[in-house]
Write a structure and sequence with these properties.
338 residues, mainly alpha
Amino acid sequence: MAFRRGYEPHRKKKSKGPWIWVLLISLVLGYSYYKRKQIILLFARDQSVRAEKAKDKAVELWKNANLSDQAIEDFQSSALLFSEKEPNEPQAFYLYAHSIFWNLHKMGIHFDSQSLILTLGSEFEEFLGKSQQASTSLDNIFWNSRKAESLTSSTFSDWENNKLLLFLGETHRTVKRPGALLKEYGKLEVDKLSPEFINVFYWLLAYNTMQAGDAEGLEKFLDLTKQEKYESGIKFSSREETYLKGIAKYYKKDFVNALSLLRQARTESPDKITSTTILLEASIFHKQNLSQKAIDLLEDFYFKTGKKNEEGYLLIQKIISEKQGLKTKVERRSEPTN
């Protein structure tokens, strides 16, 4: 029996059914992936809107002196969720840093003229009340602001506000010198700052100017506070201005002019300004190898305050430990025993 070339009696006709199913499944999967991306993007936009609304609510409540812990917590939770859902979005990390800033408000830490005056002549940690919680919050503010900045090569909507939070975090960290911080952050555009950050900016500007011993910069700042366009509540009395100038001269190591200004700012009232001027004057004497004169000044003030000036007591002990042969009427306290 003859067969045609290519004849295959047992081969079945090829079915196209499986290929159709593969095509349909691929289309369904592709469509599902597309819809999933759309849902994720929609959810991310929703989280962004939630976080922005929570921020705006917190600011409005703060303006009316009615900011509640609940409003702060709502802002923090929505901002954190936004940053978790959008790990490449700089605005998300800025908003989370901004939300943490309100922890300072909850702890009663305010950036105003009084707190600035009380802090000058001391470390930044003194301003925080040596609070570990405040220190941790400032670390978190810094790192989230830094993350926001690192995620983009250009500015984003809250760029200036993010720079302000970096200024705050950097001041707390003390890694960079005050002069370097002033160069990097001293010229922020104030009109682009959120209203609760305006006082913070001028507070940080004044504080770092003083720490840098920039007497000329301080004069410019004081002149700025007298201009009509100046919107911050941080302003100073004549006595406070003299005090600020004296501290600036001290940090600049211009001790002759520092002494003159610090003495002018001193009064008979043993307030913070008077106390700090005496501590700084004693420090100058000690630096000038007039340590006994420093001790005499400190112990006189110590007794006048009823032995209540703890900083004076500690400075006396420090000077005595650094130089032998000094005399003092202030008795050294016995160390507590365990």
